[in-house]
Write a structure and sequence with these properties.
Layout (H helix, E strand, L loop, with lengths): L1 E2 L2 H14 L1 H8 L3 H8 L5 E2 L1 H11 L33 H12 L2 H14 L14 H12 L2 H26 L1
Antiparallel strand pairs: 1-2
Helix pairs in contact: 1-2, 5-7, 5-8, 6-7
Length: 174
Amino acid sequence: MKKVTDDISKAFDRCVEALSLNELSRRTGIGIYTLRKFATRQTNSIREETWDKIYPVLKPYLIGNDADAPSVLPPRIGPTARRHHDLVELVSDQKILLDVFGALAPRDRSEWLDRLTKAAGGDAPAYELSSLTADENRLLGVFDALPPERREPLLLELVEYAELEVRKQRRELF
């Protein structure tokens, strides 16, 4: 059994701050409930087989007694807004919409926002989430204003469009 020390608890905090609890769970294969217990020190020890799964992901965030620990933490990758606490309540379609919208070029974002606004019958009240841009807040408001039967087809069309754009950009890079 591995004792949950202050260093390990702080490493969990740093890791969750950088990755999110969901991502840590995905990478380790350990349930969120279990990881939360370790992070909040609701348990004093970690089974060896569990520690073996956690340690490779947690190692860069261990500072203190670990001689192999780096002095600089790994950089955050991806938009920090996607890990922001006020996005937890969004449904899957809204999260997909934000991710796809973020993959578009600025000109395409504007065109798709206008297109969705027309499909919704005009402007709708924008969300007021501090972790999102004004366009992303407006996008979520317009998406909610769409008739339910129009949401999925438009979202799928946008996903297909964004996928083609990303493939085109990759071909240009390589």
